[in-house]
Amino acid sequence: MQSIIKAAWMVGATLPVAAQAADLEVTHWWTSGGEAAAVAEFAGAFDERTEDTWVDGAIAGGGSTARPIMISRITGGDPMGATQFNHGRQAEELVEAGLMRDVTEVAEAEGWRDVIAAPSLLESCTLDGEIYCVPINIHSWQWLWLSNKAFEDAGVAVPTNWDEFVAAGPALREAGKVPLAVGGQPWQNAGLFNVLLNALGGRDMTMRVYDDKDAEYAAGPEVAEIFAAVADARELSQGTNVQDWNEATNMVITDQAGGQIMGDWAQGEFQMAGEVAGEDYSCLPGLGVNEIISTDGDAFYFPMLDDEAESAAQEELASILFDREVQIAFNLKKGSLPIRKDVDLDAANDCMKKGLAILEAGGTVTSVNQLVSPDTNTQIETLFSEFFADTSMTPEMAQERFADIIADAY
Amino acid sequence: MPSVTDTPSGPRTRTARPSQLFRNLNAKLASIPMILTAMGVFVGGTIWTVVYSFTDSKLLPRERWIGFDQYERLWGTNRWLISIENLLIYGSLSLIFSLVIGFLLAALLDQKIRFEDAFRTIFLYPFALSFIVTGLVWQWLLNPDFGVQSVIRALGWESFDFDPLYNPQIVIYGVLIAGLWQGTGLIMCLMLAGLRGIDEDIWKASRIDGIPMWKTYLFIVIPMMRPVFVTTLVLITSGIVKLYDLIVAQTGGGPGIASEVPAKYVYDLMFQAQNLGQGFAASTMMLLTVAIILIPWAYLEFGGKRRG
Amino acid sequence: MANPATLSAAVAAADAIPGADPGGPRGARPRRALSRGNVFLYGTLLVAALYYALPLYVMIVTSLKGMPEIRLGNIFAPPVEVTFQPWVKAWGEACTGLNCDGLSRGFWNSVRILVPSVILSIAVASVNGYALANWRFRGSETFFVILIFGAFIPYQVMLYPLVIILRELGIYGTLWGLILVHTIFGMPILTLLFRNYFTSIPEELFKAARVDGAGFWAIYFKIMMPMSLPIFVVATIIQVTGIWNDFLFGVVYTRPENYPMTVQLNNIVNSVQGVKEYNVNMAATLLTGLVPLAIYFVSGKLFVRGIAAGAVKG
Q1: FRET partner for C91 with CA separation of 20 to 30 A, picked from A250, B68, B291, C282?
Q2: ipTM value of the model?
């Protein structure tokens, strides 16, 4: 009963807002354990350092559930104070339509350009020289997470690259483990392909396929090798039976699976489970083949608001998101890399340090999200979702359809 | 026998007739919300959708005309074709089973049985649960690792195989099981109500004539229940066309794209792929199909014999 | 003004019309217990009941187990150790993002959406049905067909046009916007139900009232409404179920402070913290379903009687 009264009181309390301080509603789709802990760092800093209040608008179910809601809200003329999108082209048209606030002033006052870790991060926020979003982290997809215990159980050494991992597959099977955990959702299947393309094919192949959109090349023998590798991955993933990425990660954490190809956000889950990098689990950036990571990640956009106090709060939030200390606190929890190069991540674990080293050495590749439209991306996701579910589809068939998609890509 | 299908019984409104426009003025005023909804939302929205299906609108609607390109792409897309196929399978089976199960259960309940209230409540309660919930529970019951399959295997039948949600060939039937579970209760209730409205004398007469019970149902009772069947038909078919939530909650369209449906294609294309034009083209095809079925029906019902 | 005496007499006359009483089974006579037919009859009903009741059983049992027990696997086994912790967590503690107050957060919002939406949608649809049944005018059938067409339009298609309409009306993001949306989408099926019901009310009654000089509204309020309580109950049940369970409209057309309970349900069910907490998911599910379930239990008998009078006669 008490909680009902409390709830009713809270609903009532959030309604009337009149003071100078603003309530800023922030929507995002970070709801898993590690993600929620990370976003709490932003909220905490915002509440503490400003008069304003962070009103959390989490919508579970990932970007594909949350984005339609965010877009409806913005185009419907009742936007939130700030909202998450992935780096790339998801918010392109909203910016072009003048629905987003430009934060160039904040960026110039604080000299963002001088401290940004990779120029492409700000570039994807920029339209006609104005900056419309704050990149908040660098996520890279190109990681192979391994359970040390699973390999011990199978009696083989922990692999150091993709080929060794494939070779260890039968031993893992014999020990009753799924060699490669792959969640059933389309974005995970397509992501896995892109990682193999990045890591095994390298930067040039990636750019030729996704940036030049060279369909002939995509149908050719070099890319065919990648498709053969995806077929290997499909074989190794048989028996996974989970949908969400963190359920698949959990299979690695609990040593039921040998490994998982997943972005560095998986690290947050290992951390939440109390696992130690290097001891309980290993990580191979670029699958141990090519030291290369992508600059995927998240950014916050600030829809145009009429209210002055809220608009001021938006700029304050932009500044806090880019702040050095906040960046460190957030990214440690999230398992991603900070977007500033002037940070010292002593607290970072083994895996994050590997990532930082690659970033420093310039081993980055532009993320697929930034290269192709969401439409093309969805087509690729559909293709690989089909491919992973239907073992009768040969790599050749998949490659042919892939080349068709690239031919129409924009 | 009046129903959706009845014909206007003309003279009702003939008591006063000043001028055409002001005749039934109150009725016309009271119908304004309906007219606004019908014209403004349903017709307006449909026209808007059709118009923008000829553009290359991405995230936001824009007037860049590209003719039939969206439709060409639509019918060249494997996922759309699978969606159509799934809808046909699911739709025809769901229609048949809903009507048959609904009617059978209602007929059984109508035999003056004991515990009718309890049975009726059990059959109807899934209707009170949302599709999100239905999908989740059945996802669970059909999970091979701890659902029905594992339980039956644990009982000793080791080779028992039942994992519809993980088998692309039969996943749509797994969805059907859940869909029927959720929806047939309401149909049963409508049917039962229909049976309750049949005059007791009909039964007496058929008993005296020695007509077997099944024949009485088939040739006398069911034809008398035509309006009920029309009402349930609208309910069931509109539910089938709009099938979306259950798929998302239960299978997410998977495994692969094996359980995709048109409404989900529309939604994903509009909001995830940010290709409004393509989503509109798909929904135009859906609406066109509905119109092709509905308009001849309406013409037969209302068009032929205008007010007397 | 209508003469009240005549009106009430007319109502009484309607009550006396033979066949208007919808209660009581009319099927074949019951047979002796344990006859072959009875075994078949009850056997079939019990098998069917099993199919319908099994998921509910599993949900309840699971919601009372702790996670370690669930991991043991048998979803049909009754709980060894009964715990109400999942219910407590689902109601007041489950987290999404930074908000850790479970379903309780959205409960009153759902109520605040539900009550006006149900009332408004039924009021509008019943007047529509009444006009379509008793006061046809040129074109009214066309509008009716368009409404039926509307029943088939996938909600997703209308999402965007409605955003524009609500934006132009200036009520996008408000509670009233959402209520309007529910009214619009409830209209096709409800209008169908009411229209069918009202056409079933004996025409003599309507004529008598007209002779007495009763107008559109007088007949609606004094004859039609009092005579149609069952169909109003039916409509209420359909609307309560639909609106209470709505997720899409609730989340697209309102702001977070107005989000209904189903949004929290989705967040709890989709928010995986490592391992899915099935017991909490089930408890959340049952809690969310409680309101329509209660409404149904309360009005179960009226439900059948209402549909009987409406769908059959009409």
Answers
A1: A250
A2: 0.82
